[in-house]
Each structure stands twice: as C-alpha cells, then as structure tokens.
User: Which sequence fits this backbone?
C-alpha cells in the first residue's frame, strides 16, 4: 500500500467509507451511554459538561454536536470484535476512555489558556476556571466508576489498564508544560511526552476493548502497541496542523502551538537538524526564554502575525515540517506491524488498517 501523505484530505484514503461507518457506529453505541453517565453529575456540573460535549450552547439551548472524531471509541469497539466479542461489549471501555479524554481536555484548555475548542469558547472561558476543574475531576471519576460497575474479572483488568494510561496522560501534560519553559527539547523527549499525552489513551482504548472482549494479555498488549504507534502518528499530524493548519478547519488560532511556545515535534526536529535556519531558530527561542517578564501576558510576548510566520518559516526551512510528516508515516507503519501479532478475522484487520490510514491522512 502506498504510504499516505499526512496533509491531504482523509476522505480519499482507501477504506474511508468503512471507517466513516465505523465512527458512526461508535457514536451511535457510545453517545447514549455517555449522555446517561454525564447526567449523573449534580447541577451545575451536568450542564457545564453538556456544554463541553457540545450538546447545549452557552445559554443552555440544545446544540448540534458532531460528537468529535470518535476514534477512541471506535478503537475500543473494534478491539472487542478482534477478541471475538460483539462490538457492544466494548462500550463501557469506549465511554470510560471518552470521559478520561475529556477530563484532560477541560484541564488542558485551562492550563494552556486555550479560548477555543471545536470553533466554540472553551468551558473555562464560559463557565470559569473552577467549573472546568471540577467537571474535569468528575468526568475522571465517572470513567473509573463506569468501567468497574460490572464487577467482572475483565472489568477489573480493564480498569487497571485505564488507571495506568491516565497516569501516563497526566505525566505527558506535566512534561508538555515543563517543556514550554525550556530553550530546547530533544526529539526523544518530545516523542516520550507525546506517547504519554496522546498515545496512552489511544493505546488504552485498544487494550481495554480487547480485554472486555475476553482477550488475553498477549493480544491486548499487541493491540495496545498498535494504539500507541497510532497515537504518535496522530500527534505528529496534529503538530503539523498546530503550526500550519488552517484556522477555519482546525478551529484554533493561526500558529496555535507557536503562540503557546510548545516544543512540538516540528520545533524539536528543526532545532536538532543543524544548519543556518536551525541555529537562527535556536537563537530566537533562547532570547524568548530570557524574556521571562513578558510570559503569559496575553499578547504572546507582543509578537505580531509576521513574527509567528517568520518562526514557522524557520522551522520549515530547517526541515522540521518534513521530518514530522515522515515520522507520522514511520509510526503508521509500526502500528500496522503490531497488528501482525494478533490473530483476527481479515475484515477486522482491514478496518484497523483503514482507521490508521484515516487518522494519519487528515486536515483537522
């Protein structure tokens, strides 16, 4: 199969129709359960959470939500099928993963100062920081509660995997914040951080779905590796979009990651590349780090659009964009290689493959 280009439209990937059907199935099976579980929250947390998920607008009126990409729920359901169970078997895991994922989004938006998510004001912007923290905490607790509710050996095994993944997710966010205040971060450090922050939950979605479906640890671990590599591929594409993505498509500001001083893969790869552009970028970032008094002023150190564009150009000239796109392909290939370790029906293997293609080849 030809290797896909990460910056093209994923609707054109082989098997895209099957993936869209899989994502629709995941939403259909998980969204009613997700709404029911979120409905357990006491006011006003229930309405704040409903706003975050896109079910209501800021005034409390019903809103049309797209349900997000639904990649994690789809992986959990597909992994349950790979274990020989019905997709519905993986629903508790799919919903628990979504609850933990959205816990992280609520807290990350506040910590990063992000005012927009999916083309809407973020929760902390609308309802205040305290509600963003409380609702995030509540979603995290609900995820563990839901997964343990059946009281079976499989649910206990799945809960242990979710707890481990959540710890890695939090480690990744801590690393991400710490790296923003360093002049440079190695590519290896960046990959470790992104493996924790993004890869851990995608990996967990696969292993939890498999465990709930009755798979042994060996098969669950192999599917977990598939999810980890897929998560790294996903994040590599996201890092490219975080600098060069179109705001109308991504729902974020221009040069989003540069505004937050994120040491994402394109930045780290550019700094490690050597050459004139790499050296100039290192000098710019070093001067930025010394200007500590202007941090977090809301004006991104007073930089204008031209300055951000110049930084993006240096990263691209140094090869950071190209390297990151190639890394997305490498991680995509590693994800597919992990599938070879698991015995499963051909049609399910094909859907795993198509989903990997779909995730890597996207514009938002």
Assistant:
């Amino acid at each position: 199969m030809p290797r896909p280009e990460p910056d093209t439209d994923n609707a054109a990937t082989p098997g895209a129709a099957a993936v869209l059907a899989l994502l629709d199935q995941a939403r259909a099976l998980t969204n009613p359960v997700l709404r029911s579980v979120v409905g357990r929250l006491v006011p006003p947390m229930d309405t704040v959470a409903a706003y975050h998920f896109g079910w209501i607008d800021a005034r409390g009126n019903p809103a049309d939500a797209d349900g997000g990409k639904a990649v994690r729920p789809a992986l959990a359901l597909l992994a349950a099928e790979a274990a020989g169970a019905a997709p519905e078997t993986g629903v508790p895991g799919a919903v628990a993963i979504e609850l933990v994922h959205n816990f992280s989004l609520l807290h990350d938006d506040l910590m990063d100062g992000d005012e927009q998510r999916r083309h809407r004001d973020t929760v902390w912007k609308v309802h205040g920081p305290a509600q963003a923290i409380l609702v995030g905490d509540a979603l995290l607790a609900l995820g563990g509660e839901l997964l343990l509710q059946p009281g079976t050996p499989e649910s206990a095994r799945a809960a242990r995997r979710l707890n481990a993944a959540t710890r890695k997710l939090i480690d990744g966010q801590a690393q991400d914040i710490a790296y923003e205040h360093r002049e440079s971060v190695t590519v290896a450090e960046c990959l470790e951080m992104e493996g924790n922050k993004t890869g851990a939950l995608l990996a967990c979605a696969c292993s939890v779905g498999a465990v709930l479906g009755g798979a042994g640890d060996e098969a669950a671990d192999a599917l977990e590796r598939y999810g980890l590599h897929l998560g790294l591929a996903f994040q590599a594409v996201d890092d490219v979009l975080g600098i060069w993505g179109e705001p109308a498509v991504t729902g974020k500001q221009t040069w989003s990651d540069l505004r937050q001083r994120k040491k994402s893969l394109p930045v780290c790869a550019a700094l490690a590349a050597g050459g004139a552009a790499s050296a100039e970028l290192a000098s710019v970032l070093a001067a930025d780090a010394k200007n500590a008094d202007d941090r977090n002023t809301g004006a991104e150190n007073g930089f204008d659009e031209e300055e951000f564009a110049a930084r993006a150009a240096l990263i691209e000239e140094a090869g950071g964009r190209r390297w990151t796109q190639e890394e997305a392909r490498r991680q995509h290939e590693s994800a597919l290689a992990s599938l070879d370790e698991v015995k499963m029906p051909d049609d399910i293997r094909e859907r795993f493959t198509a989903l990997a293609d779909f995730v890597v080849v996207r514009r938002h």
About this structure: Residues 1-8, 295-300 have pLDDT under 50 and may be disordered. The chain is about 70% helix and 0% strand.
